């Protein structure tokens, strides 16, 4: 009697196999504000696989005031997730980098040449404060490049202090920074203003990568629903170029 519900669910789910690889999620239990249990992680990995993803880079927060994650902590958690995924015979490839909050600890890591966990192509996923802009964002991104990394700025559409002059994003891209938009920002999840900024960035061809930034299964369920989010299907995201790199 419930076949019609199942059929509707299957019909409304997006096929994101053309994206191929997700570069931003929080799937390692208990080390940041992402999943809390391995069961939650597995549920999300199954959902990623159902959307057509072939590879995941989970990216735990490194924010020294909140989440003092190190490469050793992240790799240990990654192995736990991988082991559980293998036991479930999940075929999706799982790797880990990190989402680095640009703070004093990050700058110390960068300037002293300590190990950084990167996305394919020696890319560093970085995030800015939400409430107050850094005084030297452009110089910091230049230093990242100078040290041999390629900066990828996470969810630029959510930094509201740039809304008054979004040309800053054009300047950052011209400097060599790549921008990663959150899939949920293409709909109303974070609010109308975030959606408008995400749309502006896409219309101006400033976005390089799509990321889920999934912290829980509900995020993926929202992404998986077909609606008027034509950008998920039509914009030339470059995720797939990083598959198996």
TrEMBL record:
The keyword Transmembrane does not apply. Pfam families: CpsB_CapC. It comes from the Bacteria. It catalyses: O-phospho-L-tyrosyl-[protein] + H2O = L-tyrosyl-[protein] + phosphate. It is an enzyme of class 3 (hydrolase). It comes from Dyadobacter jejuensis. Belongs to the metallo-dependent hydrolases superfamily. CpsB/CapC family. Its EC number is 3.1.3.48. This is protein-tyrosine-phosphatase. InterPro entries: Caps_polysacc_synth_CpsB/CapC (IPR016667), Pol/histidinol_Pase-like (IPR016195). Keywords: Hydrolase. PANTHER family: TYROSINE-PROTEIN PHOSPHATASE YWQE. GO terms for molecular function: manganese ion binding; protein tyrosine phosphatase activity. The keyword Hydrolase applies.
